[in-house]
């Protein structure tokens, strides 16, 4: 959804893949990869000979995504979730971690609340993140 939104807004984007560049995985998003390239974006991978994801590929991919980013926005995180692994990658790389807290007491946001207790920045909308972006993201230095 994030890639689609960026492309719809005519932005350039980078997609980090857990498979080789010529892999059709997943077939449902082949159109998205073509559109990324057509609009001047890039596909990046560490898996040059992997037509399907290998064990650990998504964790490694998350490390690259967070490393390429100013920060990450987490909309929902359970305690034991891939989202928490993603947040850990971002924090280890000294990236900003923005978290939507979710409804009070909702178990599917228990990881979100833990991240907020540990110092992640709470957000209610995308505007909260944009306000925090460095000037060079706005074309100013």
List keywords for this structure.
141 residues, alpha/beta, 3-stranded parallel β-sheet, two-stranded parallel sheet, globular
How much strand content do the residues show? 5-15%
Sheet of most strands: 3 strands, parallel
Shape: globular
With strands numbered from the N-terminus, the spatial order across the biggest sheet is 3-4-5
Q: Averaged pLDDT, please?
A: 91
Tell me the total number of β-strands.
5
Distance between the termini: 30 Å
Structure annotation, total helices: 6
SSE order in H/E notation? HEHEHEHEHEH
Helix content: 25-40%
Over all CA atoms, what is the radius of gyration? Answer: 16 Å
Which structural class do the helices and strands define?
Answer: alpha/beta
List unreliable stretches of 5+ residues: none
**Oligomeric nature of the chains:** single chain
Written account of the structure:
The protein has helices at 2-8, 30-38, 57-67, 82-92, 110-117, 126-132, and strands at residues 14-17, 42-45, 71-74, 96-99, 121-122. The chain has 141 residues and is an alpha/beta fold. A 3-stranded parallel beta sheet has the order 3-4-5. Strands 1-2 form a two-stranded parallel sheet. Helix 3 packs across helix 4 (82-92). The two termini are 30 Å apart. The model has no long low-confidence stretch (mean pLDDT 91).
Short description:
With 141 residues, the protein is an alpha/beta fold. Helix content is 38%, strand content 13%.
List the helices and strands and how they pair.
Blueprint: H1 2-8, E1 14-17, H2 30-38, E2 42-45, H3 57-67, E3 71-74, H4 82-92, E4 96-99, H5 110-117, E5 121-122, H6 126-132
Helix pairs in contact: 3-4
